[in-house]
């Protein structure tokens, strides 16, 4: 996502890149669509689960899914705790396999095939959508331009780069910490943490194009580090036999989650990739038991997620335990 | 004639006496005054100065410094203009410390301290530093760039008497953490270690051993790679710390671990400064409560807390003087500050969402007002918000008239008073009028020339002024230049001030350290005129994609004894006023 080279201090003469505006305009369009239909009621904000193919009762029009997926779901809005919220609830593997199907359904019109592996119909509309629209119009009116999204001025507001690390931001072209961002590209750094691992990593979401890519990168990142930590790398690797891995696989379960713009924790893989990179602020590789708060439990039983856990999850399960084993062996 | 001359020389006040007296004077401003009394005093002063402060590395050359001061042990050197922090300066603009180090190595072999701000420091320079000064003690790199772990390795390996290594706010490329392991086994002199801003993973073993050896360690600020459990192990070694920067709080602790960490914190009875706290949430924040009784500075700018979390935290910090938070605490959180921190002198509120991508509310005038009511000793504020009113600011400065630093950043450029829709002129007028001790001011919001009239008329102690997206005519800038006698630094961006404004300060700029103007209405011709009239100023035009043959998009003007820079890159045009 490239930043507009905007220097007009009146403010808003260049629209944000298309992905972002399509995201917002879609939401706005969808929201106004809903409003026009006169159906913006609490019922619409209700989050429901359902098996694939089942139609959530009383859904109006076809706007539900596109909006829900596009924006993320927030049933209660923000609150003090950072606990994981009800979100779209599917196993990571399902999400990855089904991801391809989501690429198109943003037009708010048609029903979408949720993929054969199962999933959830989400027919919820984010309550905050109308305010977004209003705010956009306010800003536009104030700036006396066509309703464009907020343009970003280089070096404004005057915040040091290192402070931007609390939140993933689109850094403007020249904002490269070490000269690495290249020309014409920006970075989208997010923190990745793993329960039980002693550190955080930062990755640039812009360097990945799909969920599969990011999952294998994370796999390498976390497994290599933790395995390398015990003993002297290679020697340690030899200590980890396949049987160990298999033991650990069945021991526990990790899923990849992310914190979106609203501070809600969602399972990774439910939204189209571009939307994910737009709204993802932080990643967390979470223990499966904690992810039950995401409502996975029932689905897990139904769809046999354990069997379809990805390899990277396996290796990462191995990591903390392996460290302990290595330490005792050394 | 010769007899008289001799009498003059045998003054009743021998040089040695004068030197002894002057050796007690620390402040460089006082020393500067002393040196201007007469030649004797100038000489006595230069022989006794051991601490050197250079606010603009280009205002003077290493050669001039070497000639004047023979015995320097401590150097503080600042380089780039402040707006380089916000990426307004191209890389490779300059402020490279190397030439200075080469001179120091030759002339000041007993150099002990080097404190750099906004300078480029290469690995080669760090290596030179490490090898050239056998008694070297303290290195502080604030907002510096250009080095990697190789340079740090050199420092760790060769500086045997190092007491301070502080890499505050210097963010480099992702570097390795191997440097920490390079401190030799016998090395035990460290008192201050700060690598909080480095994105590297250090060997915890090496860190633990280092900490256990350095019994005099008083300040330890680790980076995010250190987790709570590791932090505990460090704390039990050095419970006497006065300054602590924690690592990441994002870790799951068993109940036993939780108790361990909590008890380690509770044993830190001398803590005055606490920072770090990455990803601290309500779950683990209470771990630090036991260490906060004597805390005077709490830096929560890496922990996006909500109002409730802050409200629970603050009552444990009864001695708090300085507080940095993120605006996720909201106005409600600031109300808690007003209630719990009566001794507060400094407040900084940083935005979590500076580009307004997520439409977050942040803080408003309500929070600021609440703090001002509860904290009458407030003298330093840095406040990022999206909404403010003139009335609120006027009330705030009535409550807290002792502001010396008032930095208000209303993040939307040109934003008016959100209740009356008027410009924010009256707000800054109130600040200028009421806060007679004001030394530093950053203005924002919709501002006409009126605001600058107020500033010029009332802010008689103002030294630093930062302006963005403001003013209605050249007169605005002129008011400030003519009205503020103590002005030293003026930085302006995205205003419509033009050549007339620039030239109205002809007599002023030599009394100032520097002037920065970017995205204003200056032309090369105007800058050349300034350069021609004032030959002892360096008038630099930095050319970028918005410059052309006439428009000078980034202009940096500063007084200098050293003449035009020898190391200016091709995109920096130093104007000499040759052809008008």
Automatic annotation (TrEMBL), chain A:
Residues 187-288 form the PB1 domain. Its main location: nucleus. InterPro entries: AUX/IAA_dom, AUX_IAA, PB1-like. Residues 1-30 are annotated as: Disordered. PROSITE patterns: PB1. Keywords: Auxin signaling pathway, Nucleus, Repressor, Transcription, Transcription regulation. This is Auxin-responsive protein.
UniProtKB/TrEMBL annotation, chain B:
It comes from the Eukaryota. Residues 70-116 form the Transport inhibitor response domain. It holds the Pfam family F-box_5. InterPro entries: COI1_F-box (IPR041567), Leu-rich_rpt (IPR001611), Leu-rich_rpt_Cys-con_subtyp (IPR006553), LRR_dom_sf (IPR032675), Transp_inhibit (IPR041101). SUPFAM superfamilies: RNI-like. Gene3D superfamilies: 1.20.1280.50, Ribonuclease Inhibitor. This is Protein TRANSPORT INHIBITOR RESPONSE 1-like. It comes from Salvia divinorum.
């Amino acid at each position: 996502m490239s930043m507009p080279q905007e220097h007009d201090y009146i403010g808003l003469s260049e629209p944000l890149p298309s992905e972002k505006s399509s995201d917002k305009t879609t939401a706005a369009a969808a929201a106004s669509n809903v409003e026009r239909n006169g159906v913006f009621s609490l019922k619409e904000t209700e989050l429901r689960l359902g098996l694939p193919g089942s139609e959530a009762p009383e859904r109006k029009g076809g706007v539900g899914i596109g909006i829900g997926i596009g924006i993320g779901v927030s049933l209660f809005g923000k609150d003090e705790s950072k606990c994981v919220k009800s979100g779209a609830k599917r196993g990571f593997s399902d999400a990855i396999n089904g991801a391809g199907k989501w690429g198109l359904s943003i037009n708010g019109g048609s029903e979408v095939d949720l993929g054969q592996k199962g999933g959830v119909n989400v027919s919820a509309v984010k309550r905050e959508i109308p305010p977004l629209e209003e705010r956009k119009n306010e800003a536009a009116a104030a700036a006396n331009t066509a309703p464009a999204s907020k343009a970003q001025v280089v070096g404004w507001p005057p915040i040091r780069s290192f402070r931007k690390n609390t939140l993933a931001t689109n850094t403007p072209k020249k904002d490269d910490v070490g000269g690495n961002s290249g020309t014409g590209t920006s970075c989208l750094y997010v923190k990745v943490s793993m329960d039980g691992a002693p550190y955080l990593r930062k990755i640039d979401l812009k360097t990945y194009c799909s969920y599969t890519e990011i999952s294998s990168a994370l796999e390498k990142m976390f497994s290599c580090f933790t395995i390398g930590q015990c003993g002297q790398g290679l020697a340690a690797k030899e200590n980890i036999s396949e049987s160990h891995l298999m033991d650990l696989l069945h021991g526990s379960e990790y899923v990849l989650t992310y914190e979106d713009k609203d501070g809600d924790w969602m399972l990774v893989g439910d939204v189209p990739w571009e939307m994910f990179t737009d709204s993802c602020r932080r990643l967390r590789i979470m223990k499966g038991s904690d992810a039950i708060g995401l409502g996975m439990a029932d689905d897990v039983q139904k769809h046999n997620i354990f069997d379809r856990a990805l390899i990277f999850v396996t290796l990462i399960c191995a990591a903390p335990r392996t460290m302990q084993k290595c330490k005792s062996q050394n | 004639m010769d007899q008289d001359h001799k009498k003059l020389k045998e003054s009743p006040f021998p040089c040695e006496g004068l030197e002894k007296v002057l050796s007690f004077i620390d402040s460089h401003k006082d020393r500067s005054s002393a040196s201007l009394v007469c030649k004797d005093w100038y000489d006595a002063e230069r022989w006794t100065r051991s601490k050197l402060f250079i606010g603009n590395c280009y205002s003077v050359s290493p050669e001039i410094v070497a000639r004047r001061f023979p015995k320097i042990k401590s150097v503080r050197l600042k380089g780039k203009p402040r707006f380089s922090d916000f990426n307004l300066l191209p890389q490779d603009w300059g402020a490279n410390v190397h030439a200075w180090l080469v001179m120091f190595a030759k002339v000041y072999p007993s150099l002990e301290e080097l404190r750099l701000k906004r300078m480029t420091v290469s690995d080669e320079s760090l290596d030179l530093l490490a090898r050239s000064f056998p008694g070297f003690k303290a290195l502080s790199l604030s907002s510096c760039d250009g080095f990697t772990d190789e340079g740090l390795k050199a420092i760790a390996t060769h500086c045997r008497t190092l007491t301070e290594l502080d890499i505050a706010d210097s963010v480099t490329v992702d570097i390795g953490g191997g440097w920490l392991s390079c401190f030799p086994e016998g090395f035990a002199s460290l008192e201050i270690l700060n690598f909080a801003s480095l994105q590297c993973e250090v060997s915890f073993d090496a860190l633990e051993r280092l900490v256990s050896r350095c019994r005099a360690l008083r300040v330890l600020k680790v980076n995010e790679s250190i987790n709570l459990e590791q932090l505990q192990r460090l704390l039990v070694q050095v419970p006497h710390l006065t300054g602590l920067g924690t690592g990441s709080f994002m870790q799951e602790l068993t109940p036993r671990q939780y108790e361990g960490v909590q008890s380690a914190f509770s044993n830190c009875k001398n803590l005055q400064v606490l920072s770090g706290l990455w990803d601290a949430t309500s779950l683990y924040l209470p771990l630090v409560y036991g260490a906060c009784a004597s805390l005077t500075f709490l830096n929560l700018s890496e922990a996006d807390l909500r109002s409730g979390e802050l409200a629970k935290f603050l009552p444990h910090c009864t001695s708090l003087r300085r507080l940095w938070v993120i605006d996720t605490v909201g106005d409600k959180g600031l109300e808690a500050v007003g209630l719990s921190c009566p001794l507060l002198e400094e407040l900084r509120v940083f935005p979590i969402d500076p580009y307004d991508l997520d439409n977050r509310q942040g803080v408003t005038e309500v929070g600021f007002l609440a703090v001002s009511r509860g904290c009458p000793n407030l003298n330093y504020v840095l406040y990022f918000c999206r909404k403010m009113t003139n009335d609120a600011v006027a009330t705030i400065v009535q409550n807290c008239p002792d502001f010396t630093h008032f930095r208000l950043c209303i993040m939307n450029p040109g934003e008016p008073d959100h209740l009356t829709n008027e410009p924010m002129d009256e707000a800054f007028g109130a600040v200028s009028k009421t806060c007679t001790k004001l030394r530093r001011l950053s203005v924002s919001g919709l501002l006409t020339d009126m605001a600058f009239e107020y500033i010029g008329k009332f802010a008689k102690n103002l030294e630093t002024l930062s302006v963005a997206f403001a003013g209605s005519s050249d007169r605005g800038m002129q008011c400030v230049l003519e009205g503020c006698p103590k002005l030293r630094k003026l930085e302006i961006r995205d205003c419509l001030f033009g050549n007339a404004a620039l030239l109205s300060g002809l007599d002023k700029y030599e009394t100032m350290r520097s002037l920065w103007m970017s995205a204003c209405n200056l032309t090369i011709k105007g800058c050349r005129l300034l350069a021609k009239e004032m030959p002892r100023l360096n008038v630099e035009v930095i050319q970028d994609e918005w410059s052309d043959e006439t428009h000078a998009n980034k202009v940096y003007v500063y007084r200098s004894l050293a003449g035009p820079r020898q190391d200016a890159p091709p995109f920096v045009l130093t104007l000499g006023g040759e052809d008008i």
